[in-house]
Amino acid sequence: STPIDDYAILATVMLNANNRIWSKVSPSDHIRYEAGEIDLSGRRYRNFRNYYGHGLNILEPFDADYIDLSDTLFFEFQQITDLTFRVLNIAGCSVNEVNKSRCAMMERCKLEKLIVDSKLLSKQEFILLEERFDVVDLSAQ
Question: Largest CB tally within 10 Å, which of 18, 74, 104, 133?
Answer without folding.
Answer: 74
